[in-house]
Every structure is written in C-alpha cells, then in structure tokens.
C-alpha cells in the first residue's frame, strides 16, 4: 500500500460533537492530498472514540488512554502510527477549508528550509485567532502582554504588540517564532530530529516549546495566510458557551493553572540561561502571582 503524503493527528478529549464536525470537514477534502487520520483520545467520557469508530471507519487509528495524559503526551502517542512525510497536529474544534491541506503541503514542498507552518486561523466570529502566530516570550513581552496588556491598547505597536505580531497584517505571509497547536503543519523528519513534543508540559506552551526546538535546529517557521481554517477555540477547556457548563470547576481550575505552570516550565527550560539570575527570579515571582490571581478568578467566577 502506498504511504500517505500527510498524517493528521487529532487529540480528542470530550468534544464529541466538535470532533464529528472536524472529521466531516476532512472527509470533504480527502481528494486534495493523500492523508491518514489518527485520533488520540485522552480518556473521553462522552463517547468520542465510539463515535469515530461508528461514523468514520476510514480513520486509520484510534488510540485510547485510561487517563488524561495531556496535550504533549497525547499527541506523542501517535508517533508510532504516523506514516506520512508531513504531519499535521489538528485540534478537534477546527473546520478545515478547501485547498488548505493541499496548499500547505505544496508550500513545504517548495520551501525546503521551512520546518513548520500554519495557515490563517479564524474564529467563528470571523476574527483572526491571534494565537496563530506568536513571538517567544521574553521578560519584556511577558510584562507588556500578560500583565500590562499594552498590546490590547496599542494593537499595532512594534514596541508593545510583539507577542501577536500586531504590527504585521494578518494577510501577510511572514516568518514567526511560534505556531499554535490547533494547526501545526510540519515534517516528520523535523519532529524526529527534535524529539516531538516535550512531555514536561501537560497543557499549553508545548506548541511554543516545539517551535523553539525546531528553530533551534535552524529551520524556519512561517505563517501562511493564503488558506485558512475555522477554530472554535477553548472548547475542551470549558471556555466556550457551548462547553462551559459541561466542564466541572475542578477541571477548569486545572486547565487555567496549567497555562501558568507551562509558563514556568518554559522559562526554566528555554530562557533561564539568557538572563541574569535577579531578572529570572523576578519573572518567576510574577508567574506565581499570576497563578494566584487566575485561581482566585476561577473559584469566584466559575
């Protein structure tokens, strides 16, 4: 049997309806590029694996875990089943549009120095998902983006809006630091070279960390807005109206704090050696404070 050009890995966790819509969108574009789909399910309790088995027999593999092992480990479980030259990590709360897979694959074929890329990621409102293209966090970007939120006040400032590249048009193709895990299109050879996702991250920042490792090896990463997908965003974390009531408070707290914990892991792994000890300790203090603030908000507001 001929090997597929592309392997699509979808990590699933209690998003059965969204996962169905995602797979239906993939079914419509199966003729664009030869691909296989691997669904890695993180112990869903909503019937997601059974739905895939019943309704999408063309899905190559459904991997089931007994517990939620997180984003990085969940995606890495697909490694032994991937046969494609290219690999797309795709969220279940996404809808693939016509030509997106074909043109992304062609882009990597034509740009041998590019290790990974993403497309324009659009929210259901029609707005750009700003996390589609991101800069690596530095103490300055952390201050202006996370704490002072100056990029919301000056969204096109080159000084204050570095994190989301607000000063570059979302319709412009350009090199970026980091991609979002919702649509992370890369090469199997690159993943093997850098060791796939770092499983020290449970949820959040693992896509930024993977981007870091790819660029560290000399590969370029690009934002390619000529094609797009739709991203519901935050569904599995209880952040949308559609799913908010279905996620227990304990789970919401776990997810919100995982974001902050991931910041700390990234700082210690990738940034620690780049800055003086005093500045690193100040950054860690800020992260601890942010953890307290977010935990308080979740407990009080739900």
Mean pLDDT across all amino acids: 93
Count of spatially separate domains:
2
The N- and C-terminal alpha carbons lie at a distance of 51 Å
The CATH architecture of the largest domain would be Alpha-Beta Complex
Show the helix and strand layout.
Blueprint: E1 6-12, H1 16-28, E2 35-41, H2 48-55, E3 61-64, H3 71-76, E4 86-90, E5 94-96, H4 100-110, E6 114-122, E7 133-134, H5 139-147, H6 150-153, E8 174-175, E9 178-179, E10 183-187, H7 188-194, H8 206-216, E11 220-231, H9 249-271, H10 277-301
Parallel strand pairs: 1-2, 1-4, 2-3, 6-11
Antiparallel strand pairs: 4-10, 5-11, 6-10, 7-9, 8-11
Helix pairs in contact: 1-2, 9-10
Please provide a brief summary of the model.
This protein is α/β, with parallel strands linked by helices.
List keywords for this structure.
single chain; 302 residues; alpha/beta; Spore Coat Polysaccharide Biosynthesis Protein SpsA, Chain A; nine-stranded mixed beta sheet; two-stranded antiparallel ribbon; globular
Your description of this structure?
With about 300 residues, the protein is of the alpha/beta class. It folds into 2 domains: about 5-135 and about 175-235, Spore Coat Polysaccharide Biosynthesis Protein SpsA, Chain A (Alpha-Beta Complex), CATH 3.90.550.10; about 250-300. It has 10 helices and 11 strands. The protein has helices at about 15-30, 50-55, 70-75, 100-110, 140-145, 150-155, 190-195, 205-215, 250-270, 275-300, and strands spanning about 5-10, 35-40, 60-65, 85-90, 95, 115-120, 135, 175, 180, 185, 220-230. The strands form 2 sheets. Strands 1, 2, 3, 4, 5, 6, 8, 10 and 11 form a 9-stranded mixed beta sheet that branches. A two-stranded antiparallel ribbon has the order 7-9. Helix 2 (about 50-55) links the parallel strand 2 and strand 3. The longest helix has 25 residues, at about 275-300.
């Amino acid at each position: 049997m001929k090997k597929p050009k592309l392997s699509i890995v979808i990590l699933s966790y209690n998003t059965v309806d969204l996962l169905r819509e995602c797979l239906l969108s993939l079914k419509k574009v199966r003729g664009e590029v030869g691909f296989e789909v691997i669904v890695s399910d993180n112990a869903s309790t909503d019937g997601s694996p059974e739905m895939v088995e019943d309704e999408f027999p063309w899905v190559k593999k459904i991997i089931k875990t007994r517990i939620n092992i997180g984003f990085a480990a969940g995606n890495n479980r697909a490694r032994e089943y991937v046969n494609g030259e290219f690999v797309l990590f795709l969220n279940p709360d996404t809808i693939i549009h016509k030509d997106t897979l074909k043109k992304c694959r062609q882009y990597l074929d034509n740009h041998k120095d590019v290790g990974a890329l993403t497309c324009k990621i659009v929210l259901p409102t029609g707005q750009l998902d700003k996390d589609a293209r991101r800069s690596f966090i530095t103490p300055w970007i952390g201050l202006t983006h996370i704490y002072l939120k100056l990029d919301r006040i000056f969204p096109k400032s080159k000084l204050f809006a570095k994190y989301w590249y607000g000063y570059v048009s979302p319709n412009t193709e350009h090199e970026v630091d980091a991609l979002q895990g919702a649509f992370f299109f890369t090469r199997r050879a690159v993943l093997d070279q850098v060791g796939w996702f770092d499983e020290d991250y449970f949820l959040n920042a693992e896509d930024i960390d993977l981007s870091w490792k790819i660029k560290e090896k000399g590969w370029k990463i690009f934002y390619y807005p000529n094609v797009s997908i739709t991203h519901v965003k935050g569904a599995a974390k209880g952040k949308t109206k559609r799913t908010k009531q279905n996620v227990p408070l304990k789970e919401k707290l776990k997810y919100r704090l995982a974001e902050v914990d991931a910041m700390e892991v990234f700082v210690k792994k990738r940034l620690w050696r780049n800055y003086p000890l005093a500045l690193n300790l100040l950054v860690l203090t800020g992260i601890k404070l942010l953890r307290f603030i977010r935990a308080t908000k979740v407990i009080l507001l739900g």
